[in-house]
Amino acid sequence: MIRRPLVAGNWKMNGLRASLAEIEAMSAVYDDALRARAELIVCPPATLIALAREIATRGGLGLGGQDCHAEASGAHTGDISAEMLKDAGASYVIVGHSERRSDHGETDADVQAKAAAALRAGLTPIICVGETRAEREAGDALSIVGAQIEGSLPADAPAHIVVAYEPVWAIGTGLTPTVDDVAEMHAFARERIEARLGGGKSGEVRILYGGSVKPSNARELMYVANVDGALVGGASLTAKDFIGVASAYR
Ligand code: PEP
After folding, report:
1. Is the CB of 59 under 6 A from ligand 1?
2. Tens place of pLDDT for every residue, the chain, 250 residues?
3. Is 231 in the pocket of ligand 1 (CB under 6 A)?
4. Does residue 134 belong to any structural domain of this protein?
5. Does residue 177 line the site of ligand 1, with CB under 6 A?
6. Ligand 1 pocket test: which of 101, 209, 231, 241 has the largest number of ligand atoms within 8 Å of its C-beta?
7. 237: CA distance to ligand 1 center in Å?
8. DSSP readout, 114-155?
9. Which of 93, 142, 168, 201 would staple 159 via disulfide (CB 3.0–4.6 Å)?
10. Which residues form the catalytic set?
11. Is any atom of ligand 1 closer than 6 Å to the C-beta of 81?
12. Taking a C-beta distance cutoff of 8 angstroms, is the pair 95, 126 a contact?
C-alpha cells in the first residue's frame, strides 16, 4: 500500500496578510521533485485562506482550516463552517487539535461531529489525537489514543481521512517521543483505525506525527514505520523551516 506522505503546516493564531509572503516562498521552492514525493498543505488562520488561494494554487500547495463547526450555517456567532472553509479555498481542515480540546472543552463526540461536517462539505479532516504527559507517565498512552480514535472518527469515514498523532507534551515544547515510541503508537493507531472503520480502509489512512517536528529531526521521525507525514506547528511559519521539514522526503 503506497500512501502519499502529507506535510501539513498548522499556523495556529499566527499570520497577517504580510505572512502571505511565506506561502509565496513555499510555493516557489515546492518543485516537481518534492511534489512527486510529498503533498504539502498550509493551514493558516481562516482570515488568510481566501487571500492565499491563488498563490497556493499556483505553487501546487493545498490549504486547510484549523477547526470547523459541525453545522453548515446558522446562529453560531464567531464560528466557521466546513462549507465556508471549502468556499474560501480549503481542501482540508484540522479537527480535535489538543489546543481546541483543552481551550474549548471539545470532546471526542464534538470532534467526530466536526470530522463528519468536513466530509459532508467535501473537505478532508485531519483528526488529531494524543495523550498528555501525565497519561504517558501513567502508562495509559495507548489506551487514551485508542479511545480517542474510537470516539473521534466517524464510523463510516472513507479511507482518505487523515489522523494526526500529536502527544500533547510534545507540542511546542521541543520534546519528541523516541522513535520506538512513535513506531509503537503509529502501529497501534492503524490497528485501532481498522477496528473503527473496517474493510481494510486503515491501510490507506495517512497517520501523521506531530509535536516539535523541525528540519533537524524530520528525517528521523518521517521514516518511522506507519508515519505518513507530519503536522507541523512552529516550524511551518516560515518557508525555510517548513520546506526544511518537507525536504526529509527529497
Ligand atoms: C501543532 O500545533 O500541531 C504542533 C505540532 O506544534 P509544534 O510543531 O510547534 O510542536
Report:
1. no
2. 689 999 999 999 999 999 999 999 999 999 999 999 999 999 999 999 999 999 999 999 999 999 999 999 999 999 999 999 999 999 999 999 999 999 999 999 999 999 999 999 999 999 999 999 999 999 999 999 999 999 999 999 999 999 999 999 999 999 999 999 999 999 999 999 999 999 999 999 999 999 999 999 999 999 999 999 999 999 999 999 999 999 999 9
3. yes
4. yes
5. no
6. 231
7. 11
8. HHHHHHHHTPEEEEEE---HHHHHTT-HHHHHHHHHHHHS-T
9. 201
10. 97, 166
11. no
12. yes
159: domain CATH number is 3.20.20.70
Distance of CA 149 to the CA centre of its chain: 14
Please state, in angstroms and as integers, the Cα–Cα distance from residue 83 to each residue in 39, 91, 92, 116, 206, following that order. Answer: 23, 10, 11, 12, 23
Q: Ligand 1 pocket, 233 CB below 6 A?
A: yes
Amino acid at 140: D
Please indicate, yes or no, if residue 111 is contained in any of the structural domains: yes
135 inside domain = yes
- Residue 214 Cα to ligand 1 middle (Å): 10
Residue nearest to atom 7 of ligand 1 (CA): 233
- Report pTM: 0.98
Domain that holds residue 117: 6-30+39-44+82-238
Q: Is residue 166 part of a domain?
A: yes
For ligand 1, atom 2, name the residue with the nearest CA: 233
CA of 221 to the centre of ligand 1 (A): 14
Number of domains observed in the structure of the chain:
1
Expressed in angstroms and rounded, the spacing between residue 75 Cα and the centre of ligand 1 is 31
